[in-house]
Amino acid sequence: MTGLQIIFLIVTGVTLFSAIMVVSVRKMIHAVLWLVQTLLGVAILFITLQASFFAVVQILVFIGAISILILFSVMLASRVIQDSSPQVVKKWWLPALVATLLLGLLVNFLALWPGFETTLVELPEGSDNIAELGHVLISPEGYIIPFELASILLLAALIGAIYIAIDRKEPQSS
Amino acid sequence: MGFWRDPITFIGAWLRDLLVNTGLSPMGAELIGIVLGAGLLATSAMLLVIFLIWVERKLIGRIQDRFGPNRVGPWGIFQPVADMLKIFTKEYITPIGADKLAYNIAPVLAVASVLMVWAVIPFSFTVVGADLSVGFLFILAVGALGEMGYILAGWGSNNKYALLGAFRTIAQLISYEVPMIISALIPIMFAGTLSVTGIVLAQDIWFIIIAPAAALVFFIASVARIGRAPFDLAEAESELVAGYNIEYSGLKFGMFFVAEFLQAFTMALIFATIFLGGWRGPGAEQFPILGFLYLLIKTSAVYFITILFRATLPRFRIDQMMALNWKILTPFSLSIVLVMALVGRLVASSPDVFRVAVFLAVNAVLLVAVDRLITLNKRKPPREVGSRNRPVAQAEVLPAQSDPGASE
Amino acid sequence: MIPLSWYLIASAALFCIGLFGVMVRKNAITIFMSIELMLNAVNINLIAFWHYHSQMQSGPHVTGLVFVAIVIVVAASEVAVGLALIISAYRRRKTIIIDDLTLLKG
Fold it and tell me: How far is CA B173 from CA A16, B33, C101, in A?
């Protein structure tokens, strides 16, 4: 049991525990904090996989922007009384059963793949080549079209979010 | 002589030899060395704050034509120590209805996010906490992590004013991230790497000479990111009581206080590292301790300018602040990146002096263009009501009157 | 050192927890957070397979990373628009419990 394996087990344990807490705690703010911990755990998993750039991007985007956005909306759109009413559907054991079944099916079918048990060794230096990623994202033989589409998607989301959330002062305000 | 050339590496090697000789495996010795180094760095950063508080109060006092603190110890050196002792011994008063988890974790997040930045900054040729290949992005990411602390402080205090203060603080912090990140792309572009040590090593010519406009935008955006004057509307005592840290007392408030001062110094450190050449200077490669000294001098110069800002400039209003960010700084930084990338590509194969001259000229053109655009858009002076020829009261000589009281 | 199977099982478990959250919770924002969990599980999967392919092919190979970048972009834009919708719905209906937002129910 090498050190890296121990770290992986601890981090995965913490991540999955935090994920379970996200879906089961009552107070919304605590759920968001557990979500932040889950995202941190995922970032550490990225580091063990030697994708350090995406680990840091995960922290920057998911924790630094998305979690703050969720926190804001929790503060703006929740009322204290909602924290005490029933938060889960009745018969919650049925979705739990479905989720466990799905997990079993996924692992089963993945195990049928011959490469399932390969051990991931450390990549040689420079494999996580950010410059290469940059080149590929803007070269016509590469992935420039998904890149441009992603930019258009962001622009559309920006305009759409502003338009939906803007508080228009109507003449007959309720 | 080996010690004086490079004290920290010397002590580290000596400690490691000591541990290995007492039977510990090299990996264990390495681990202990890392933990000790991290603890030492964090502790020295926190102790530095005491000195920084004193410097700031003395300087602001002198600028305002008064002595700073000068009673407690020679030149008031022990004043911050007295302040810290007072803060340590104050009682923690948690407001009723405060969300305990959010309320208590907020100061921790605020300080932790600043201390984590110190791990990736190269202090000399040989001393760096963690030489990450994505070091600079790490700095930005943990800055974003610190913002969570402010929201949790505002929400966890169960106080309308704290919440409003936290909202305004976060709006300011998130907005100014955009020009800061975009203008930080310039040194990254010229160095060709995201790692901070790589950026320092690529600065044969300091980046502030190649891209002064980007340095200016980065400086303004970082000052706004810390929430420091003139952008300190979040903690303006006259406006919002005390913003997001109203309900904090004792050491928890002390932590926010420490976080702010440490952030100012850390911002100066980052600016000195990526724009002023970090530890580079004459003789810094052979004598790493000289490198540390150069970094200290450059950081102090930038910190001094920050203190000058605070002491002399009036505060921004929130709409002025947002207008400055979205209407001026963001388009400006985007245009700087575009123009510098293009020009950099065109002059890539020219001799150094020519390149620097072209870059300086381009930056001057950009700065002048922005200045003209700003003055073009200035609001017209308000329409005058009434005329300029107003009757002015004049002292008239009244006719002499008999004394009313004496006539009866 | 760490078998690929561990990463795949971890990502599948995270995905199923997210799915459970979406199916079980009544609060719209919690459902949102569960969707974020699912997206993160997919990211772990993608990067694990990127590592596997880089190891097998031993050459610069960044297709997996491009995919992850696009997933992160999509997650960010989805959160922005989704939360704008939720806040807008809250302004009109004063509730975000999905059981009460049944105006379109036939």
Answer: 31, 36, 34
